[in-house]
Specification:
- This protein has 60 residues and is mainly beta.
- The chain has a single domain, classed as Ribosomal Protein L9, domain 1, CATH 3.40.5.90.
- The protein has one helix and three strands; from the N terminus they run E-E-E-H.
- A three-stranded antiparallel β-sheet has the order 1-2-3, with no helix packed on it.
- A hairpin with a 5-residue loop joins strand 1 and strand 2.
- The chain is globular and about 30 Å long.
């Protein structure tokens, strides 16, 4: 598995992994590569929906 932070955007996670919600339940995924939200505003958390662009999310 690899995790790549995108500048001013999501974390791209590639490979075999399990994503769990806050209660420890598996979150369904259909792709081997997923984009995880870092801005906290996505409407499909934990996945990115592109909202970071609309709110001008910036990383250091």
């Amino acid at each position: 598995m690899t995790i790549t932070p995108c500048a001013n955007g999501p974390l791209l996670v590639r490979g075999d992994m399990e994503i769990l919600d806050e209660d420890g339940n598996p979150v369904p995924r259909t792709r081997r590569t997923v984009a995880l939200c870092r801005c906290g505003v996505s409407t499909i958390k934990p996945y990115c929906d592109g909202t970071h662009k609309a709110i001008d999310f910036r990383t250091e």
